[in-house]
Design brief:
194 residues; 44% helix; mainly alpha; Glycoprotein, Type 4 Pilin; 4 helices; 3-stranded antiparallel beta sheet
């Protein structure tokens, strides 16, 4: 079998094209002697640094937003728990004509003293695992209990303060969470913000 011969015009075009392709694909390109063909297809250091920088910026924005969502979720949980504790105190008052007496110092970040009195009176026992010896006014989630007091989503004890006046009237119970820190502007409380 013989190959067909091409006309001289076509032979000239194909030969020239083959020569140009061979020169461009060789490792030592005569038109670009300092840049072999293999290095032309690689990324430069500047391009890699630009991509890494963009990925870092996007990761920082994502992680920052995730932290804000987590803080907002903890604050919402604390608000719901403070409202539930307040409602449990009102049920306790309806049955006993008195609030649980507890004094906690609002200037301290983690003061379980008042929360312990609230815990034993609303739960009816000294620990969550013990059977109640009196009526149970509040059923907490296990994550809300640490020992013998209620804790907020940040792991600090809820503050509780309630006392009786000299004339025999009760001050309304004050329940608060320090929201994980000492900044009083961020506290979550049962009393209205001033």
């Amino acid at each position: 079998m013989t190959t067909p011969t091409l006309s001289p015009f076509h032979q000239k075009i194909f030969t020239h094209a083959k020569f140009a392709t061979d020169i461009y694909l060789t490792k030592n390109n005569p038109f670009r002697p300092l840049r072999p063909w293999r290095e032309q297809s690689a990324f430069t250091l500047i391009e890699l640094l630009a991509v890494i920088t963009i990925i870092g910026i996007l990761a920082g924005l994502t992680l920052g937003a995730a932290g804000a969502v987590r803080r907002h979720g903890a604050a919402s949980t604390a608000k719901a728990e403070v409202a539930a504790l307040q409602a449990a105190c009102d049920r306790y008052y309806a049955d006993n004509n008195a609030y649980p007496i507890g004094t906690a110092d609002p200037t301290k970040t983690n003061n379980p003293a008042g929360s312990t009195a609230l815990f034993t009176n609303l739960l009816g026992s000294t620990t969550l695992s013990n059977a109640p010896t009196s009526k149970r006014y509040f059923e907490p989630k296990p994550a809300m209990v640490s020992g013998s007091y209620f804790i907020d989503p940040w792991g600090y004890a809820y503050g509780y303060n309630c006392s009786i006046n000299a004339d025999g009237t009760w001050n309304p119970p004050l329940i608060w969470s320090t929201a994980g820190g000492g900044n009083t502007n961020r506290w979550i409380t049962s009393w209205p913000k001033m």
